[in-house]
Specification:
By secondary structure, the chain is of the alpha+beta class. It contains four helices and eleven strands. It has a five-stranded mixed β-sheet. It has a four-stranded antiparallel β-sheet with strand order 9-8-10-11.
Length: about 240
């Protein structure tokens, strides 16, 4: 969609037919990369991300070694063919920034002090992008860490929310932003929390929101977090129940 649409929501329905608080179809699976220590695939509609965890393992380069805790690093990357206009391969400014914020969010939940002098590397690959890739990536990374058996104080559950306009120009908050809403919406927010403690690990906004709108969006996102978290737990259990039933 290259031209600004007349509206992003009409009669309470978004351009893909969803209600404001409705999530896209979510799929989650762990153990998708057999040579990783832990891995997961998560898709929110057409946005599809694979995360693979390697470690705890030896630190390279050695000068990055931390004597009292593990060095956790996350790399976010988007495949060239994941977007409509082919993306130049390799990390650019955007990928470096996203890797940094995802690394920081994940460092807050892992018990790093249990693995001094080691590295925990998380590769987050966007296979197909239809917006909200960083939050989808965080959900996948958290699952991959749990799949690797790395102790964490909680999972990480993430979702986006945003502000869109209707045919009369009235503004509405929505959850789980997809591409047209990301392109033409008035604001979008990437939001991640520890689902059991409600500690905010990521809050990144593009555009403008009033305080009231931010809190409305957060309330809607917290509701979505509960649903996403249930699916994360199910994805973790499913792998171990496979073959037992
Ligand atoms: O993906 P996320 O919403 O976390 O981050 P963004 O930087 O706001 O990107 C929004 C969306 O723009 C991505 O999810 C892709 O669908 C799209 N995009 C693209 O088409 N080409 C790029 N080089 C980067 C992003």
């Amino acid at each position: 969609m290259n031209e600004k649409p007349e509206y992003l929501i009409k009669n309470g329905k978004r351009l893909d037919g969803r209600k404001p608080e409705e999530l896209r179809e979510i799929k989650m699976r762990t153990g998708v990369v057999s040579n990783a220590d832990g891995s997961a695939m998560v898709s929110f509609g057409k946005t599809k991300v694979i995360a693979a965890v390697y470690g705890p393992r030896e630190v390279h380069p050695r000068h990055l070694l931390l004597p009292d805790r593990a060095l956790l690093r996350a790399w976010y990357d988007m495949f060239s063919f994941s977007v409509e206009d082919r993306k130049r391969p390799g990390p650019g400014r955007r990928e470096i920034e996203i890797s940094k914020v995802l690394t920081e969010a994940l460092r807050s939940v892992v018990f790093l002090e249990k693995f001094p002098r080691t590295a925990i590397d998380i590769f987050i690959a966007v296979v197909q992008a239809d917006a909200s890739t960083r939050v989808t990536g965080l959900n996948a990374a958290a699952l991959a860490l749990a799949d690797a058996g790395i102790p964490m104080k909680d999972l990480v559950t993430a979702v986006s929310f945003g502000k869109v306009y209707d045919e009369k120009g009235k503004e509405h908050m929505v959850v789980d932003v997809f591409k047209p809403e990301d392109n033409w919406g008035l604001a979008d927010v990437a939001y991640a929390v520890t689902p059991n403690f409600g500690e905010i690990l990521l809050l990144q906004m593009d555009g403008n929101l009033t305080r009231e709108e931010l809190f409305t969006g957060k309330r809607m996102a917290d509701e979505a977090v509960r649903k996403i978290y249930r699916q994360q737990v199910k994805a973790l259990k499913d792998k171990y129940l496979e073959g037992l039933e």
